[in-house]
């Protein structure tokens, strides 16, 4: 009798676990680019924006804003790179608020090209690892400091978030950091963060769902690191720069996030 009960109970547990697994979030792989990282590509335009391209450190960079400002911001792009008009428009917006803004070409003229079937995502990524870009970002930031920018902030979008999180692990190097709908960033990365970090999550981002952003937030809170964390409702991964320019929810949320990021930098990069 007892063993029948035990058997029924065990069967019940098994069914319960099958049920729970069937409805659990699919496991996501944080060492690769998700499909949403490359969806909705921008039309690149090398002459877009109010600024110009010049060398910073060893990298061509789109720069905009007064070189006399003491405060600089680096925007680390998503896979589509520094010729994306919406990203340059964002740089110009922060320049108008008093910052000198640089958008480096971490891809050396080779942003991801979804039309190039000879070079699928993983092959492209192998040649353009954010870890390598982090090594190139360091001399670029030293160059900015050398030019008289006493405070530097860095924000990374999707692919760019990983190199920014590496910068955030360095003490006294940049003053504030931000990651927007990140890729590659893990909870272990967040545990090593030493400077203020803002996290911009999209409610519908499958790779970085609100629960994971919440975990990031809890780590920063317990480590007493200054932070800002917000989930933007009704939008997908990429929304802060790959929004619909004609308007709608993605546009509204993008403008809201861009303003939140500006406030973050005004507060911390001074
Ligand atoms: C995650 O993606 C990387 C790069 O594509 C791959 O090497 C690795 O095997 C994947 N890991 C899992 C658990 O799927
Ligand atoms: C590229 O940007 C420049 C400068 O804003 C603009 O004049 C030109 O029309 C744009 N080209 C395309 C194809 O949108
Ligand atoms: C890819 O090809 C499509 C169709 O020809 C074109 O509209 C688009 O601009 C191309 N994208 C890139 C990034 O070159």
TrEMBL record:
Residues 1-24 form the signal peptide. SUPFAM superfamilies: alpha/beta-Hydrolases (SSF53474). Residues 61-265 form the Dienelactone hydrolase domain. It comes from the Eukaryota. It holds the Pfam family DLH. Keywords: Signal. One of its GO terms (molecular function) is hydrolase activity. The keyword Signal applies. The keyword NADP does not apply. This is Dienelactone hydrolase domain-containing protein. It comes from Ficus carica (Common fig).
């Amino acid at each position: 009798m007892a063993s029948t009960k035990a058997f029924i109970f065990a069967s019940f547990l098994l069914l319960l676990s099958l049920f729970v697994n069937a409805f659990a979030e699919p496991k996501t792989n944080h060492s690769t680019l998700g499909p949403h990282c490359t969806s909705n590509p921008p039309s690149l335009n090398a002459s877009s924006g109010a600024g110009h391209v010049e060398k910073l450190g060893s990298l061509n960079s789109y720069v905009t804003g007064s070189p006399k400002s003491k405060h600089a911001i680096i925007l680390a792009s998503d896979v589509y790179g520094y010729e994306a008009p919406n990203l340059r428009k964002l740089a110009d917006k922060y320049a108008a608020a008093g910052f000198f803004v640089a958008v480096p070409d971490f891809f050396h003229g080779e942003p991801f090209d979804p039309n190039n079937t000879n070079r699928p995502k993983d092959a492209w990524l192998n040649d353009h690892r954010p870890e390598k870009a982090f090594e190139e970002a360091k001399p670029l930031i030293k160059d900015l400091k050398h030019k008289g920018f006493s405070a530097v902030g860095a924000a990374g979008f999707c692919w760019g978030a990983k190199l920014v999180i590496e910068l955030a692990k360095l003490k006294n190097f940049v003053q504030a950091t931000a990651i927007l709908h990140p890729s590659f960033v893990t909870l272990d990365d967040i545990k090593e963060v030493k400077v203020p970090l803002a996290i911009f999550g999209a409610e519908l981002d499958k790779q970085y769902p609100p629960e994971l952003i919440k975990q990031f937030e809890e780590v920063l809170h317990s480590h007493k690191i200054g932070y800002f964390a917000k989930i933007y409702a009704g939008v997908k991964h990429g929304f802060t720069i790959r929004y619909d320019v004609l308007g709608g929810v993605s546009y509204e949320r993008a403008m809201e996030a861009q303003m939140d990021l500006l406030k973050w930098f005004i507060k911390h990069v001074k």
